């Protein structure tokens, strides 16, 4: 580049630059218009979809954000915003919004049995309790489809033709094409061929078309795609009273404000619906013994685990850094590369490999290193904790070694020399001079390492799965679970997915983490570096 | 802070005759520590390599290191129709690469504006990024899942069970520690360069794309690689958002492959681990001096 510059004269160079900048400017503007055009097109599409499903709040949010983005990029100023907007948008949606949303969920009963609104819960209840009405007439059916999905074109025994789908109850039609006494096609819908019916049998058997908006009227189902039968629910919904009555047993279930229809003796009909329960989840976490005990144990173990992990990796790393920081020693490069291999190996794989090596009856450690012992490394509550700390030492010491070596080499030689001249012994030099200097540089790293281990989900989940399980606890939690793995298990594994309780745990953890971080940041004054 | 690169200092030449005791006292014992640590570090890796070459498949069969050598496990892993390993591998490479590139890009944009521009809310912005990081994304996983499942009600193309959706969630963490690392590095590039370019008529975008990005290439490589490794290792969000086996990543797929190591096809898993780890480790060792420099500048593992 410089060669060419030298050859051209000063003026032509300047002219070339101006031309270059100008053409770059036009290209930039074109690129900007194209990119913004794409963004706007997507936004308009999103607005249509959202408006169709009546999500006006979200639609208006999308509109506002799109307008702001356009305004930022077309304005002459707003320079920092142009650079910050893309990252900040993602940050707001997937970090800040979800934090707030977690807070909201923590105050609801959102869980497997309570994951929709009341109307959907009523539909689901009635639908699951539906049975075929004995001796009901046969309705002739043609399966039809439109953009919204499958529907039924129904010819009633009295010859009346109507069409409907699972979301739209039957409504009569006049202009249907008849084949004998059966309607086979109607405007606005495509009739499915016999082959299509065979192929999509699963969907068709599950298709249920209600007679009217009142769920008590029952609905039509077709086992074969050509004739349908009337199904009514054994539950009767009374909209005025807001109660569900079981027609066969006569039990009345009413909405008692717990997010489910509940009978007088406390029996709940599930699915229920989502309601705000206030501090119930937190109250459960702190008062219900079968939750509180494991929560306290898990919290203590999380802190102990994070502290011991940081301490063990730090001291081993520091020790190694001191050992290998001797220039007279040969082959240091080789040792160093061998020792950072665990850091380069993907961490989730390490945990899985160690899980195999520590296996009680077949693992490498018991079978080969310990000559056929059967030590329950991962299944005994205490040994499992030891194993986790040991494996985390293997995973984490290379990082500390690298960082400590860097910190050690950044200590100026003359400081050490001065101390030696003053008569300090090597150990004194280390303890009184090197160590404090090291700690100053390493404190932020130790804190972030603590924070990392506090949420070191992969290690725990892949090595022990949190186990061995605590049988006394009412939530799925084990001896080695840390807070984050407990949240994951409460929310996503097992029969009952309790999102509300898991979010309440999350908030508790957040308060804990924030307190610890603020206190430690205050102490190290790491934030002072910001300017 | 200086890097930890080994300095090529020659050992001080000793005129005195060789004495084992003195040698041992100075550096000999260090070699003992070194050999012990090398064994500790490398043994599990040798074990994986050995069991991946073991045709038998069981955990017990893997214990005698390198007793049998063959590529059966690799063949089994790649051809078994019940576990789409190649799809996992491709997905992971795709997702991790896109996430890395996008993270670097978004992070660099933000770092540039924080480093070069003075605007109201700058300090607040920097602080917010630090504070938000205190609440790891991992913790909000329930909310992320519910948010994505409502997004898929309206836009199935970017909701649950899509790679775009997962990458978007990862983008939420693009500003953060990465921005900090880059911000520090950007600050070390003299502002004079920008000013010279400005006088020559270059706009801010031109300065950013053609000058700054080239000068900060080392830190971009570090952040990109750390993000790549981080995404490869990510399990929680991927396991929740990706449902179909063919859509999943290595972390999710391989975990399921050996969720009970006693009964799993251990050799096939090891083969998968070797294939998954080799590119990452090669990249790591190749770029290690940059990474070490980046780490000591205050990164987090």
Automatic annotation (TrEMBL), chain A:
Recorded topology in the membrane: Multi-pass membrane protein
GO molecular function: ABC-type maltose transporter activity
GO cellular component, one term: maltose transport complex
Keywords: Cell membrane, Membrane, Sugar transport, Transmembrane, Transmembrane helix, Transport
Places the protein is found: Cell membrane
GO term, biological process aspect, one: maltodextrin transmembrane transport
Segments traversing the membrane: 29-50, 56-74, 86-107, 300-325, 337-357, 382-402, 435-454, 499-521
Keyword Iron: no
Pfam family, one: TM_PBP2_N
Main location: membrane
Domain ABC transmembrane type-1: 299-520
Record function comment: Part of the ABC transporter complex MalEFGK involved in maltose/maltodextrin import. Probably responsible for the translocation of the substrate across the membrane.
Family: Belongs to the binding-protein-dependent transport system permease family. MalFG subfamily.
Protein name as annotated: Maltose/maltodextrin transport system permease protein
Lineage: Bacteria, Bacillati, Actinomycetota, Actinomycetes, Micrococcales
From TrEMBL, chain B:
Subcellular location: Cell membrane
Protein origin, superkingdom: Bacteria
UniProt topology in membrane: Multi-pass membrane protein
Pfam families xref list: BPD_transp_1
SUPFAM superfamilies: MetI-like
Membrane-spanning parts: 32-50, 85-112, 124-147, 167-186, 207-229, 266-287
GO biological process per UniProt: maltodextrin transmembrane transport
Molecular function in Gene Ontology: ABC-type maltose transporter activity
Gene3D superfamilies: MetI-like
The keyword Nucleotide-binding is annotated on this UniProt entry: no
Domain ABC transmembrane type-1: 89-287
Record-linked InterPro entries: BP-dep_ABC_trans_perm (IPR050901), MetI-like (IPR000515), MetI-like_sf (IPR035906)
Keyword Transmembrane attributed: yes
GO cellular component: plasma membrane
Family to which the UniProt record says this protein belongs: Belongs to the binding-protein-dependent transport system permease family. MalFG subfamily.
The protein's name: Carbohydrate ABC transporter membrane protein 2 (CUT1 family)
